[in-house]
Amino acid sequence: MALAFGIGGGSGPVIGGSLAERGHWRWLFYFNLFICGLVAALLAVFLCLKKPNTPLHEKLKQIDWIGNLIIVASTTSIVIALSWAGIQFPWSSAKVLVPLILGILGLFGFLAYEAFVSEFPIVPISLLASRTALSGYAQNYFNGIVLVCISYWISVYFQACKDAGPTAAGVDSFGLSYTISPASVVASVIIQRISRYRQPMWFGWILIIVGCALLGTLDENSSRSMCYGFQALVGVGMGTIYVASYFPVLAPIPVYQSTAALAFFTFVRNFASIWGITIGGTVLQNQLVKRLPSTFLTQFPGGTHTQIAFEVIPSIRNLPQPLKDQVRHAFAGSLQVLWNVLAGIAGLGLVASLLMKHHPLHTSVDSNWGRVDVDVKEKDEVAA
């Protein structure tokens, strides 16, 4: 999964940048229709899963309708708040604070409902009963923030400070995206061989902290090779955590709970991505307003500073001196603060990792689930 994510994450910015650079930005969305259609066809043809022999009305009764409603409403409220914050409305605006607070309270209400009311909970509270599992979910969350934030904002450095176009900035990000995949594969093999997950995860967090701190030393005149190397350090660390954080979540629970645990794990990772982009935008916004020349900012009346950042980038290469160097310096300094903030978030991940205990890894799977063809093949082998 991490290997596929790395390949997609590396090629996506280049494809998207190429389309945007040529003015075909609508195809950033249309292109996904073909991808999703192809994947749906592959799933329909090749993914033959076991199906429980339960009547449809019984299946419908086992859906946690109220729990689904609470979690969808809560996360939607938070997404709306984070999408508006600093872009359409200030962070202090009631239009941001009200949905954000209601969404967070809704998440706590969701956990309470799952624990004490729901007969068929989406997230059984037993998944969160051990400190090792809690540590795994927390590390997954912090790693998701760092991963998405760097992936999203690293191209801004190359475009604003190195005069790179959207496509070239995607290529410049290969140091990050194409180290995550091999690192995740190596980490999974090591964990399988040594049956230990804590030590690789500590190693991964240290690499992320060091890599982000080194990114925080880059200025507008730093060499590209330095940035590539620092990206690689972060990528190796994130690739390690990306795959290793499954184990503290799954090891403490019985295998029959793996489905619910992985569903919640994926939710936490996707939820973190919203915060990653928002944190990056907020830091960049606050720093740019302090660092960009005031006379230059007056050219963008009424706009938020996050919007200003993306409006300015295409024009930087054509700005007169010394204004061009001043703007490049402002972007580099703003991003330095962001990378240091991410080093701090990675530090929280390292602290959370200290809560883990060692649990033996499972050596079996839940035979009630899986692909139909696997069982058929196994039965044929046994019969032979």
Automatic annotation (TrEMBL):
Keyword line: Membrane, Transmembrane, Transmembrane helix
GO terms, molecular function: transmembrane transporter activity
One Pfam family this sequence matches: MFS_1
Keyword Nucleus among UniProt keywords: no
UniProt keyword Transferase present: no
Compartments reported by the entry: Membrane
Membrane topology: Multi-pass membrane protein
TM annotation in the entry: 27-49, 69-91, 97-116, 137-155, 175-194, 201-218, 230-249, 261-284, 337-356
InterPro entries documented for this protein: MFS (IPR011701), MFS_dom (IPR020846), MFS_trans_sf (IPR036259)
PROSITE patterns with a match to the protein in the record: MFS
Signal peptide segment: none
Listed GO CC annotations: plasma membrane
Domain (Major facilitator superfamily (MFS) profile): residue spans on this chain: 1-361
The protein, known as: Major facilitator superfamily domain-containing protein
